Amino acid sequence: MINPEKFASLLVEWSDSNNRDLPWKTDKNPYKIWLSEIILQQTRVQQGLPYYLHFVDNYPDVFALANATENQIIKSWEGLGYYSRARNLHKTAKKIVVDFNGIFPDNYDDLLKLPGIGPYSAAAIASFAYEQVTPVVDGNVLRFIARLLAVELPVDTKDGRKEIFDFVHKAIQFVIPSVFNQAIMDFGAIVCKPKLPLCIQCPFAKHCTSLKSNKVNLIPFKKHKKQKQERHMNFLDFKFNNKYSLICHQNTNDIWKGMYLLPILEFTDNNINEAVNNFIFELYNDEIPFIIHKVNLKPLKQILTHRVVFCRFFEVIFKYLPKKKKKKFKFLLR
């Protein structure tokens, strides 16, 4: 088994030749590092990069971000998903301005107290901005080290994570923390990938216990594999003379919270006419004639972290425009 010092040396040597050129990697500004870390949670670098550049351009410092409205932040975040990250981003910006005079905490423990910052993000910010010896342990790192050491404990248990954390914590002592953390994150994303890892190109091949025992595709082990919840969303595009849509604000504590969307009815059966009729009567206290056109024959499928969402879209064409409606809905001109 490879020792921590040798591991750190080989990792940094690999990083010198395979460093990913990303704007936040050469910037010690904790604000920009924090932005990048929050944006890249549950997001690939290629997808997150344009959002990072947009935020830096539109909110160049934590004061600009704190002074923006939540709706402005949500709009800037639009399309990135997991909108709780955007709301926590705004909460943290305001907290930094009010409680810390715009200066980010310079240690792991204080960073961990901020909204939306967990152990991984706190370790990343503390090491990248302040060179604190705090190793990052995300899914890429868990997979990489579990394979390297052939960790038999499930990586989603306290003992399994501890075995991996103890190893990387020893290894980071021998090199510059920011270099080590960036390298170990990059390696898990580029070489020791979830599927089809590049074992032939891996500088740790001769040290990898899983490779020697032909267990690379079996490791890491997980004890708790969560079953994804299925959600069936039916979006209603209300129209009158092909000019209007009914828009509602998602104010419930659910997916797409805070977003302005087409009205959604959640059900799995095909009795759309009855469901729409009930919805219209609840909204207007009147039975208004309508015609329904199905937009997509096959439901669109979106796989999220904890759920699988199936979406259908229907055009609901009013015979006449309703005059009274509840305040939480509004008509918008196309």
Compact overview of the structure:
By secondary structure, the chain is α+β, with helices and mostly antiparallel strands. It is 43% helix and 14% strand.
Count of alpha/pi helices:
13
Uncertain segments are none
Distance between the termini: 64 Å
The fraction of residues in strands falls at 5-15%
Helix/strand-derived class?
alpha+beta
Structure description:
The chain is α+β, with helices and mostly antiparallel strands and 334 residues long. The chain is 43% helix and 14% strand. The strands form 2 sheets. Strands 1, 4, 5, 6 and 7 form a 5-stranded mixed sheet that branches. Strands 3-2-8 form a 3-stranded antiparallel sheet, with no helix packed on it. Helix 9 crosses helix 11 (177-190). The chain is globular, with a radius of gyration of 25 Å.
What key attributes describe this structure?
single chain; 334 residues; alpha+beta; five-stranded mixed beta sheet; three-stranded antiparallel beta sheet; 13 helices; 8 strands; globular
Topology:
Elements: H1 4-18, H2 30-39, H3 45-58, H4 62-67, H5 70-77, H6 84-100, H7 108-111, H8 119-130, H9 139-149, H10 158-172, H11 177-190, H12 209-212, E1 229-239, E2 244-249, E3 260-261, E4 264-266, H13 272-284, E5 290-294, E6 300-303, E7 307-318, E8 329-333
Parallel strand pairs: 1-7
Antiparallel strand pairs: 1-4, 2-3, 2-8, 5-7, 6-7
Helix pairs in contact: 1-10, 1-11, 2-3, 2-8, 8-11, 9-10, 9-11
